[in-house]
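Re: beginner question about structure tokens

> Can someone show what the tokenized structure looks like for a real chain? I only ever see the sequence side.

Sure, here's an example I had lying around. Input first:
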Amino acid sequence: MSLLIDLLRHGEVARPGRFYGTTDVALSDRGSWQMESATRGGAWDAVYCSPLRRCADFARRLAERKDLPLIFDARLAEIEFGKWEGRNAEEIISAYPGVLEGYWADPTSHTPEGAESIGDLFGRVVEAASEIAASCRGKHLLLITHGGVIRTLLAWTLDMPLSAVLRIEVVEAGMSRIRIPSSGKPSLVFHDGGAMC
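And the corresponding structure tokens:
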């Protein structure tokens, strides 16, 4: 039996436009509204979630309202941005000329100082997804997480090189769905890249 996983990125955060990574920021009011809208009418067997507040606060409310099991997994947290944490693009470009542009072109070759590598992110995220898949056959899960985690899971699903992972657009409160069969490779069912926003 296959497993369906809906991947939901958190909504807008307070003070948006910064590289928050593992910095624990809350959702804005708009971000909460975005997530409420994205999950309206949805039906799942359980919720898996990043422990960071911008995912966890909403996940607790949703799980309580729908009476769903809620499982937090630190492997679903966003990538650690090191020296870039809490800064916006202009600040990073000013402090580290040429580095951000290199990261956007190929994040596998331009890990920020003190940051987690894309390869390490891929390893922990795929490990989590594989363990979840092995224990949840035949179920439909909601995974509430971050843009980096979703890009990584989509790259894994599509056999994309990690150097191209930032070419996948993941909008605030955007939803994607992957199917993981009991044997064989995962497949992408749909992806909301924000083209209609």
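Each token stands for a local structural state, so reading them left to right follows the chain. The first strand starts at residue 3 and ends at 9.
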